[in-house]
Amino acid sequence: MLETxxxxxxxxxxxxxxxxxxxxxxxxxSACISGVLHLIGYELGLYxxxxxxxxxxxxxxxxxxxxFERYVREWLNNQAAGGYVQYDPATKKYALPAExxxxxxxxxxxxxxxxxxxxxxxxxxDREKLAKVFRSGEGFGWxxxxxxxxxxxxxxxxxxxxxxxxxxxxxxxxxxxxRLKLGGRVADVGCGHGSSTILMAEAYPNAQVxxxxxxxxxxxxASQRAKEKGLKNVIFExxxxxxxxxxxxxxxxxxxxxHDMGNPLKAAINSRDKLTKTGKLMIVEPLAGxxxxxxxxxxxxxxxxxxxxxxxxxxxxQEGDFCLGAQAGPAKTVEILREAGFNNVRVVQKTLVNVxxxxxx
Length: 361
Known about the structure:
This protein is an alpha/beta fold. 51% of the residues lie in helices and 15% in strands. A 7-stranded mixed sheet has the order 5-4-3-6-7-9-8, with helices on both faces. Strands 1-2 form a two-stranded antiparallel sheet. A hairpin with a 4-residue loop joins strand 1 (86-88) and strand 2. Helix 2 packs across helix 7, helix 4 crosses helix 5 and helix 9 (148-172) packs parallel to helix 11 (195-203). It is globular, with a radius of gyration of 23 Å. It starts with a helix and ends with a strand. The model has no long low-confidence stretch (mean pLDDT 95).
């Protein structure tokens, strides 16, 4: 029937390709709606309750989590259809594979990805506002988003920072880890809820660590988290990237925030002026190629979506209007840093999702 309909409309259309692409869209639609169930599973502790328990019935899972069995059964079938959990037809039981638990249930895992769905949820909530600025050409600042974005972003990046920042990335920045063990001063610019800032304060108790962000709500959350940990060597202050002060620093970091700046050049110049003579700038940015076609892959698709809805609108809402976006690529980033006066710029590491830069004068 599809072939007959298409033949009447346009003989050059390939019905097989139409059906194939329709299947792709259905897959995306399935993933989108299942994301709601993903968050429900996390918030109700369903994934955690299955972790390490082997095969179990929907009744057993419902009893363990204090939930309604009929809903849990349908949730499990959705998860099994998506390949998130395993299903045994003979026993009608379900299991969460150990490998999947690292991604879905274990919050200390470096590949715990569940918080990313809070980012998705926040953007669905902001859809009408974002469509409006598409038409008007106005910016849309970070602070204007739904609060789930702030929590989701910090929680999504924290496992990667915890796994890599102290043990891998900082030791690759020439001499900085040894210096911070003895003391020194650190500025974490665009710190958000402060996960990276707090990690550095904990790892280097002799150093004084400052977290800066223009978003007051995030600064308050970060300050509260530092207080709860009893940290005395970390201070969070509201300040923009191109005007933060408090003296000079041995290390200045931009953790997944440089491309969000309205004027990253001005931010880089301010950082240059605030570094000690032997100080280092470390920038962690999303992994990207210099040509757009290099980023046409699942990671690039996700980053372009975040860039369209978060990064570019935020940059556009601020002075400068560079609008780098989350997929600017190394060449553009290095170009800005060199223009800011950093003579020595290098990529110290690439991960599956990030590029880490070191810059000095």
